[in-house]
Amino acid sequence: MNHRVITCILCPNGCELEVGWDGEPTTQSVEVLGNLCAKGISYALDELTHPERTLTTSIRVRGGVQRLASVKTVSPIPREAVVAARELLQPMVLNAPVAIGQVVVEDVARTGVQVIVTRAVASQSDPEQS
Ligand code: SF4
Fold it and tell me: Where along the chain do its domains lie?
């Protein structure tokens, strides 16, 4: 039997899941111990079959009262796309003002997921506007 320990990150409990399975991991073959609720079972199965992460990072801002604006994907993206998404965002520079919810990338790393601003940055020339 295959075995893995996975920490569920769906809530602050952070249950440590003991996951065992034979052959391909499926709802029938996966056994999960240590979960305080049923979400832990689907989380463990997702981690084994198609793990996803929400990417959060910062992008430089030109002419803003702060040098960086925080951004995130609007939904989780496949874990294997995170590096490509980060590499795409790293050299980007936004022009101030930057508003919360502003779309930075429409389809990051071909995932179909938008990247949006989560922290507004006002312009140096108009610090009241953001
Ligand atoms: S298994 Fe349930 S209770 Fe435990 S961390 Fe995951 S969501 Fe929270």
Answer: 2-49, 56-117
What's the whole-model pTM score?
0.81
Kind of pairing, strands 56-62 and 93-95?
A: parallel
How far, in Å, from the CA of 9 to the mean position of ligand 1?
7
pLDDT in tens, 29-51: 999 999 999 999 999 999 999 99
Which CATH fold would you assign to the domain 56-117? Answer: CPE0013-like fold (3.10.530)
Q: How far is CA 49 from CA 21, 59, 87, 117, in A?
A: 12, 31, 25, 30
The residue whose CA is least distant from atom 1 of ligand 1 is 40
- Can you list the alpha helix ranges (DSSP code H) found in 1-130? 39-49, 82-89
